[in-house]
Amino acid sequence: MNNKYIEELSLNHWPSLSTLLYDGWLLRFANGFTKRANSIHPLYHSTGETLHKITECEKIYSANGLPAVFKITPFIHPEDLDSALDQAGYSVVDATSVQTVDLAHIRKPRLTSVQIYERPHDEWLNNYYKLNQVKAADRITMERMLSNIKTRTGFISLYDDEQVVACGLGVVEREYIGLYDIVTDARYRNRGFGEQMILNLLSWGKEHGARFSYLAVVANNAPALRLYSKIGYTENYKYWYRVKALIPS
């Protein structure tokens, strides 16, 4: 599988509120909520002069009250964009590992006390906001983004004695299930609940046609890396952001 394919899936599965196409670059906007949805994705063939395009992007984002943030993958166009941004004063943040797993041999979950909604649901949203401490000002934007996903979604909650202890989102498209918003209650971490929640979500994905899964994890998040490795995920490639000013990841 071409890794650029996974980048396209991730654009679909974590949609922005609006997208501007600029000579092969995708400029995404979502009121500043997450870098993924508020950054420039230079995925496709670029014909314009690089420094001019960088300047124009800065103007566009500034006009929308946002910093210009570039997502740098192995597939950027032009190939020297990362070095051009470095020379223009952009710093590297949030190096991230994109990982995949074949679902053919995924273990069955041991804990199955889960609720899966196929559309955004108030119960899931409220639990997720609580566990991940989402700011009230970002909640409307997040709900609009989740409602914009056009393929099958599974919003999962794992329970322990009727208490929600872990939440996550799976999005199925073209035989892949992408995992997003994976979070475990801080009081219940390191007890296997996150793993059990993910195994339930992957099982649900298989039932709906997924043969593989992908996810993105910040490269210095050692506990998450251990968890995903235990399930069977391995790294396909890395990406990072180039920024002059920071917004939440």
Write a brief structural summary.
Keywords: Acyltransferase, Transferase. With about 250 residues, the protein is α+β, with helices and mostly antiparallel strands.
Task: Tag the structure with descriptive keywords.
8-stranded mixed sheet, 3-stranded antiparallel sheet, 249 residues, alpha+beta, Aminopeptidase
What do these coordinates show?
The protein has helices at residues 3-13, 50-63, 81-87, 122-132, 136-147, 193-207, 222-231; strands at 18-22, 25-29, 40-41, 69-72, 91-102, 114-117, 152-160, 163-173, 176-184, 212-218, 234-243. With 249 residues, it is of the alpha+beta class. The protein has 2 domains: 3-96 and 239-243; 101-236, Aminopeptidase, CATH 3.40.630.30. An 8-stranded mixed β-sheet has the order 4-11-5-10-9-8-7-6, sandwiched between helices. A hairpin with a 2-residue loop joins β7 and β8 (163-173). The longest helix is centred in the C-terminal third of the chain and has 15 residues, at 193-207. Its EC number is 2.3.-.-.
